[in-house]
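Sample intake sheet
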Amino acid sequence: MIQRVQSLFLAAVVICLVASLFFPVWQKIEPENHTGAILMALYTEVHTQNQPVIQEYFPTVVLSILAIGAMVVALFEILAYRNRVNQMKLGALNSLLLAGFLGLAVYFTFRLEKMVSLPVEGNYDFGMYLPAVALVCNLLANRFIRKDEALVRSVDRIR
């Protein structure tokens, strides 16, 4: 059912992950000459004075694959409301995907930090916090799914 609390949390997971594809995860840019790097879920931009913008797609596209995979799993989890045990399994899988996204984002951040040696400090942006919010919403949805399953089992035991 769509009106259940866990369905609302799972919808928030989907919304956060869609938004995280369009916001930068991390950036380190020197304001005077606009050199630095920007990490997005789809690509990485490296700005240098001598060369034009270099965009690298391959390693960081894994972030977008994990985000899209977590979105699809959350949508399946919303639609699997009749089978709560299956929902719990999908929720665990979704937690792994979101944790993988966050872990890889930190890894790519450290990798870019070493590539771009600027005196400016790098900052995590909105694209890093949205998957963290999605992970918390997913954990809350899993908690409410387990509560529903415990309620149904206790009612079956009374009969």
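Comment: The chain has a mean pLDDT of 89. The first strand starts at residue 26 and ends at 30.
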